[in-house]
Amino acid sequence: MNKVLVAVGAVIIVLCSGVVLVVTPYFSILRQTEPQSVPLGEADPAIARGRAAYVDLGCVYCHSQQPRDKSFGPDFARGWGYQPKAQDYTGQRPHQLGTMRTGPDLFNIGDRNPSLQWNLMHLYAPRIMVPWSIMPAYPFLFEEKAEPGPDDVVLVFDWIGVETEPPIVASQKALDLVRYLQSLKQKEEQNVQPGT
Questions:
Q1: How far apart are the C-alpha atoms of 66 and 180, rounded to whole Å?
Q2: Are 59 and 92 in contact (CB under 8 A)?
Q3: Residue 78 — left, alpha, or beta (φ > 0 → left; ψ -120 to 50 → alpha)?
Q4: Which CATH architecture has domain 39-191?
Q5: What is the pLDDT of residues 34-81, one digit of tens each?
Q6: CA dist., res. 86 & res. 169, Å (int)
Q7: Buried b vs exposed e over 108-145: b needs ≥16 C-beta within 10 Å?
Q8: What's the CA gap between 38 and 46, in Å, rounded?
Q9: Which of 27, 101, 138, 163 suits 81 as a labelling partner, its CA being 20 to 30 A distant?
Q10: Nearest alpha-carbon partner for 125 in 136, 141, 110
Q11: Where do the structural domains in the chain lie, given as residue ranges?
Q12: 66 half-sphere exposure, CB direction, 13 A CA radius
């Protein structure tokens, strides 16, 4: 009889442990990783599409969204942001922190470089904008149009002495990607804790 009670007790303990250690965290993780339509709580579908393009194009493989602190690099000296806190990323699911830094950190790129034309040109031909850039070009995000429409965003090359015929027009995916990058604005005052 004692052996049966011990066996039944062991089975009950294993089942309860399985529920507590496996099933409950599984459903908790499912709730937490549901993709949020828009990062950082903004209600703009273009940002959500741009974020999807950011993931689709693999930007996260070369760019981080977590500036290095003072002890690890020159990001703060460059004015690339401040030491982020966990709450800076609460609106992003899943997070796009990145693990490598082949390209510059994008944590605060919306404040550092808000220009639509600059960002589009950088996507189209990175070395025109930054001669030492190793970023690949994304010309497939653009198309040549003999007659651009009134709503088309045409790349402007004349300021660097290059003329293009026919004009090069940004696709909606390129515009959305730049809109997402422009939304990456982290204000330092948001990072201040109450009472500090």
A1: 16
A2: no
A3: alpha
A4: Orthogonal Bundle (1.10)
A5: 444 444 445 688 888 888 898 888 888 888 777 666 555 565 566 555
A6: 38
A7: bbbbbeeeebebbbbbbbbeebeeeeebeebeebbeee
A8: 9
A9: 138
A10: 136
A11: 1-34, 39-191
A12: 12
Report how far apart the first and last C-alpha atoms of the chain are (Å, whole number).
64
Three-state secondary structure of 16-81? HHHHHHHHHHHHHHHHHCCCCCCHHHCCCHHHHHHHHHHHHCCHHHCCCCCCCCCCCCCCCCCCCC
Cα 106 to Cα 186: distance, rounded to the nearest angstrom: 10
pTM for the model: 0.65
Q: What is the spatial distance between Cα 136 and Cα 122, in angstroms, rounded to a whole number?
A: 10
Pair of tokens at residue 3: 């052996």
Residue 183: partners with Cβ closer than 8 Å, 6 or more residues away: 39, 40, 42, 44, 47, 50, 110
Nearest CA among 114, 184, 128, 127 for reference residue 156: 128
Token pair 């002495």 is at which residue?
A: 161
DSSP class of residue 136 equals P
Give 144-184 pLDDT, tens digit per residue: 888 888 888 887 776 665 666 788 889 999 999 999 888 88
On whether the CB atoms of residues 54 and 174 are closer than 8 A, the answer is no
